[in-house]
Amino acid sequence: MHITGLKTENFRNLQDGCLLPCQGVNVIYGGNAQGKTNLLEALWLFTGGHSFRGAKDAELPRLSPGGEANEPRASLFLDFFSEGRQQAAALNIENGRRSSVINGVKKKTGTALVGKLRGVIFSPEHLLLIKEGPARRRSFLDGALCQLKPGYAGMLSLFQRALAQRNALLKDMVRYPELSDTLEVWDARFAKLGAEVMAERGAYVKRLAPKVQEIYGGISKGREELFVSYAPAVKAGYEQALLGELARTRRSDVRAGFTTMGPHRDDLDITLNGVSARAYGSQGQQRSAVLALKLAEAEALSTLTGETPVVLLDDVMSELDQSRQDYLLNHLHGRQVFITCCSPETVSLMETGRRFRVEAGRVEAEEV
Ligand SMILES: Nc1ncnc2c1ncn2[C@@H]1O[C@H](COP(=O)(O)OP(=O)(O)O)[C@@H](O)[C@H]1O
Ligand SMILES: [Mg+2]
Questions:
Q1: Which residues surround ligand 2, an ion (CB under 5 A)?
Q2: What are the beta bridge partners of residue 129?
Q3: What is the CB-side half-sphere exposure of residue 65 using CA atoms within 13 A?
Q4: Atom from ligand 1 closest to the CA of residue 314
Q5: For a designed S-S bond to 336, which of 2, 159, 163, 307 qualifies (C-beta 3.0 to 4.6 A apart)?
Q6: Which region, left, alpha or beta, applies to residue 334 given φ > 0 means left and ψ of -120 to 50 means alpha?
Q7: Which helix (H) or strand (E) holds 39?
Q8: Nearest Cα to 295, choosing from 205, 204, 212, 225?
Q9: Closest Cα to atom 13, ligand 1: which residue?
Q10: Which ligand 1 atom is the nearest neighbour of the CA of 63?
């Protein structure tokens, strides 16, 4: 799969215009705060996910020069090649809400785009994947699963709603103990939906683990071994096990006023040569580990969907040493890649296809 064109209107600081990328490596360069990441963000939004920098939709339309108000609406148009044919999508962000058009068919939501364009994003923020708490690792799994399984995003949000309802009920139960019958209804729902989420996460990590191991072996030239495994809240037989645990922790949950156990606490265990990468890995090892996780995600998306995802690398080259840069670029051969960086020299050794210079929101193609 690859992108053949992007058009933006009123999006962030980008001047309205078109980007015509090549099928291989596209380098987007320019000074700080010129609009490079904004351009990647515009592409990324077509995967149907949230902004990878955590922005609210209402912040995406262009802000007036004084910063008083945003344009009411931003529009993005994407041409891409997938499933053996040329396709077109549009995304509108109006009054903080998304709507979309896919191959001429209007959809009321932006999530309707999920699964059309698939992508993997790697930015300096992701370097915290190993170091920080489990929430980042859960979203690493959930993000990939949303693109892989058309029903996963919906399943996850139903689970999250059940969790929120159960938590609200737990808070009320301090004053109204008679609500415990209702709690049982929510326990059953929580366990059923939670078990579905866990089954998907577990199956995905099983597919991912051997790829991570192989790629990390390649980066470390066979000297070190990285292994990832799913660390779920309860062991197999998820639904029954969750029900059992909910009953066991009920009292402490009521006291705490929230659900203390469940898939919302899941983690991904990452071990390097048999010990925790988070606790013992050096900074270089942790960087290599994140690189391996991201490349494995791209491979998993390829093998499981039969289409190579588009790879977006935001400012990561300068964070990696020469040998890791080389590994990354060799490994991405044959995929469409968008790389942002401050100076084009960073990527001068690559077989780049097209180069774009971004200045004050103006994107200009350059001859290579
Ligand atoms: N909604 C918006 N409207 C106008 N300008 C914006 C908006 N959001 C961000 N910007 C501007 O975009 C610039 C940052 O762009 P970014 O793509 O992050 O830069 P970089 O080239 O360093 O990656 C900043 O100058 C910021 O003020
Ligand atoms: Mg940037």
A1: 36-37
A2: none
A3: 1
A4: 23
A5: 2
A6: left
A7: helix 36-44
A8: 212
A9: 33
A10: 3
Phi, psi of 299 (to 5 degrees): -65, -40
Among 33, 15, 1, smallest CA distance to 315 is for 33
What structural domains does the chain harbor? 1-118+307-368 (3.40.50.300), 135-281 (1.20.1050.90)
The closest ligand to the CA of 71 turns out to be: 1
Cα separation of the two ends of the chain? 24
The whole-number pLDDT of residue 81 equals: 97
Residue 346 CA: distances (Å) to CA of 243, 293, 350: 53, 23, 9
Mean pLDDT for 212-220 is: 94
Helix residue ranges per DSSP H, 220-355: 238-248, 250-256, 277-280, 283-305, 322-331
Which of 47-56, 240-249, 319-328, 349-358 shows the lowest mean pLDDT across its residues?
Answer: 349-358
What pLDDT does residue 352 have?
64
Q: Which ligand is nearest to the CA of 124?
A: 2
Mean pLDDT lowest among 50-54, 134-138, 327-331: 50-54
